[in-house]
């Protein structure tokens, strides 16, 4: 893990950019996969999220072709 300390945000941003692009494409893909896995774990651990699991990549919510019946008023 890279730790950069500075009072100038532009210096930190540039150092992070150089660090990221110095990695090989395979290392960047591995890092992105690890970040996505951590995000899923955080989402699942958050009690404010609903009990249904988060959608995985490529899945979608299917909508009904017919209207959902509502109760009469």
In short:
This protein is mainly alpha-helical and 73 residues long. It has a domain at 9-45.
Describe the structure.
This protein has a domain at 9-45. It is built from two helices and no strands. The protein has helices at 9-21, 25-45.
How are the SSEs placed, and which strands pair?
Elements: H1 9-21, H2 25-45
Main β-sheet, in a few words? none
Portion of residues in beta strands equals under 5%
Distinct helical segment count: 2
The assigned structural class equals mainly alpha
Residue-averaged pLDDT, rounded?
Answer: 82
Shape: elongated
From N to C, what is the helix and strand string? HH
Distance between the termini: 59 Å
The tally of beta strands, per DSSP, is 0
Low-confidence stretches: none
Query: Can you give the helix content as a percent range?
Result: 40-55%
Radius of gyration: 21 Å
Q: What features would you highlight for this structure?
A:
73 residues; mainly alpha; 0% strand
């Amino acid at each position: 893990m890279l730790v950069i300390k500075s009072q100038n945000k532009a210096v930190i941003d540039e150092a992070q950019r150089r660090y990221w692009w110095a990695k090989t494409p395979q290392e960047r893909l591995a890092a992105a996969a690890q970040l996505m896995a951590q995000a899923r774990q955080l989402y699942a651990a958050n009690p404010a999220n609903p009990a249904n699991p988060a959608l995985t990549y490529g899945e979608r919510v299917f909508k009904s072709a017919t209207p959902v019946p509502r109760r009469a008023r």
